[in-house]
Amino acid sequence: MVKRKDVAKLAGVSEATVSRVFNNVTPLREETKRKVLDAAKQLNYYPNAIAQSFAKGKSRNIGVIVPFLPKIHLLSTYYFSEILSGIGMKLGERDYGLLLLFQPPNEKKDYVQLFHKQKVDGVIILGSQDTPGETESLNKLHEQGFPYCLVNQTFANFPFHSIDAQHYEGSYAAVSLLVEKGLKRIAFLNGPMRFSNSYERFAGYKDALKEAGITCSSNLLFEGNYSRTSGLKTAEQMANYMSEIDAVFSANDRMAVGLIHGLSELGYQVGQNYAIIGYDDSDIASLMKPQLSSVRVPLFDMGQQAAEKVLAMLDEGIHSPTQVRLPVTIIERDSIQMSEKEMD
Amino acid sequence: MVKRKDVAKLAGVSEATVSRVFNNVTPLREETKRKVLDAAKQLNYYPNAIAQSFAKGKSRNIGVIVPFLPKIHLLSTYYFSEILSGIGMKLGERDYGLLLLFQPPNEKKDYVQLFHKQKVDGVIILGSQDTPGETESLNKLHEQGFPYCLVNQTFANFPFHSIDAQHYEGSYAAVSLLVEKGLKRIAFLNGPMRFSNSYERFAGYKDALKEAGITCSSNLLFEGNYSRTSGLKTAEQMANYMSEIDAVFSANDRMAVGLIHGLSELGYQVGQNYAIIGYDDSDIASLMKPQLSSVRVPLFDMGQQAAEKVLAMLDEGIHSPTQVRLPVTIIERDSIQMSEKEMD
Q1: Contacts of residue A68 in chain B, CB cutoff 8 Å?
Q2: Which of B36, B127, B255, B299 is the most exposed place for a label (fewest CB within 10 A)?
Q3: Between chains, do A75 and B85 touch, taking CB under 8 Å as contact?
């Protein structure tokens, strides 16, 4: 295991200087700081000792960051409630408290101060987005060796600890399934690209169409924000293109529900005018008529594994960055069956 | 406002003794303690100063107690997720953290120690039950003047702070509605009586039948534990009495869903063989076919008001115990319409 003295040697500074850099207490020359951080990175050094020193006054709370969105019953959504249930299960077993911390999505984050204030022993981050401010704050958390884990967000250029799902593969499989059913003109209702899983779904969609020799028309690309309302609003735009659409791939079930409702009001029915497949396999999918096909994401397990990971970091220290991807499953239901008349 | 010296005078002890009782630091004779607590109760004295002294090291966290039930995705249930969304909304607005604390339902609780450990500035208690251990722990919290609030549980003999709903009225109205539809033989699937709202639902059910001149047969009383599985299991028992049953009143929607599913497997269908009304008006109620009638409980508002109440106690001190009851609304849907043939 890499020690403080190894970093000091490579950076050409004293061990005390290494500590000062990671403790962030005394002012240091930018150049010295850079040298130490570069050496630490090169050696894969994680200053557990520092995290441990804060942990002396252990709170036995794990912080869970969730976006604060006024007027949205966020915790009532299948997505957040399943992840939280999984986290809660693990923390409950180990007698840890789950500290929900609400953060307005567009405010500057400072995750490290949560540790300095001794509010938490570790942190799990939901709803993280690929923005410069967010990346900077996560990088600080990572470099200073605090126990943390992202859920359902992966950063292409940073080795942040994360538990994610195989969204590229899931989207590829969902779109390929529609193609196999003879549904070739496939509209895509995606979420914002600042979420890595929107980006990955788009890549899966594009590649599946390409593989099938289908040209992806930009007319058939729509964007919502993963809410039911955004699906409902999209119906009006999509209605203009229904003569060009055989099927819809929706990046989550909530948007699919809104879209189905909106299109129905405008005279377009699932199974008669179009097929649809959602994503997440939330509890409503099987309760709808026709039942909604979907891509099952193991959100509960992802929450459990994120909590396990953070607790393991507390118990055993942080050894190396890990990105975990859990598999997803296609759940085939009635919403991708077109009535025979229409398929003639 | 009642002061410490008033309590000292009435109890016939020194002011320091009063403080010692409420601080719970030094050992005291049981008799002295009793005298002081009785005097405090008689005068409606709440030792805010003590709560404030702990609050000096404010955590800016509000604790939310939830039952720890392994294998149950508790936070994914409509009931808990809506209350938590409401709490979270208020706390998020005021920049407080929500500390979820999981407590195994059958373990001895010690709510006061949460304050001593300075983990929380106030506490909101969900899933509280009327058991001797629970009552004792709540009484300590109450007498020592800590900011707290119960949600959806009222204790008949203790003036604990609570936000509840009008469950007696809701149940009375639900059962009366079935009677008005000509459905007179009404089975009742209730939850356990240690929850005050089960008790209140039973009282509303009984009184509505009595008012209508209908004798309530104990054959038609069933008990589950508010889970879907318990509703499913009840189907087997209820099936033996279906010839005596016109309608079912279920104490929540989750049990209703399980029951409907179970009865359907055994050959009994809603609208043909029986009518049914649930409780909570969860999101699934309107998605089912036929749509489930239900009693809408303002769970989100209850969560918001509980958080507001605890924050107000922190800001302004605790003046007097308050029990709030929010109104509920009957939501009539297809599940209480019998097909005409059956009603002949």
Answers
A1: 92
A2: B127
A3: yes
Q: Which CATH architecture has domain A57-165+299-327?
A: 3-Layer(aba) Sandwich (3.40)
User: Would you call A85 and B76 a contact, using CB atoms and an 8 Å cutoff?
Assistant: yes
Q: Could you read off the pLDDT of A243-253 as tens digits, one per residue? A: 999 999 999 99
B56-165+299-327 shares its CATH topology with B167-297+330-343 = yes
**Of A69, A79, A100, A334, which to mutate for an interface test with B (greatest number of B Cβ within 10 Å)?**
A100
The confidence score (pLDDT) of residue B2 equals 72
Q: Which of A60, A61, A76 has the highest number of chain B CBs within 10 A, making it the mutation to test binding with B?
A: A76
- Domains of chain A, by residue range, sit at 4-45, 57-165+299-327, 167-297+330-343
Q: Could you tell me if B301 and B317 are in contact, meaning their C-beta atoms sit under 8 angstroms apart?
A: no
* % of chain A surpassing 70 pLDDT: 93
According to CATH, the topology of domain B56-165+299-327 is Rossmann fold (3.40.50)
- The average pLDDT across A8-26 equals 78
Does residue A344 surpass a pLDDT of 60? Answer: no
Can you give the pLDDT at residue B114?
82
Q: Supply the pLDDT for residue B47.
A: 60
Asked if B57 has any chain A CB less than 8 Å from its own CB, the reply is no
CB pairs under 8 A between A and B: 93
Q: What is the pLDDT of residues A163-194, one digit of tens each?
A: 999 999 999 999 999 999 999 999 999 999 99
pLDDT score of A340: 61
What's the CA gap between A142 and B41, in Å, rounded? 53
Contacts of A182 (CB under 8 A, 6+ apart): A246, A343
- CA A70 from centroid of its chain's CA atoms: 21
Rounded to a whole number of angstroms, the distance from the CA of B274 to the nearest CA of chain A is 21
Q: What fold is seen in the domain A167-297+330-343?
A: Rossmann fold (3.40.50)
E-strand stretches of chain A: 61-67, 97-103, 122-125, 148-151, 162-165, 186-190, 221-223, 247-250, 275-277, 294-296, 323-326, 329-331
Closest partner residue to B91 (CB to CB) among A59, A88, A102 is: A102
Q: What is the pLDDT of residues B52-76, one digit of tens each?
A: 434 445 788 999 999 887 777 888 8
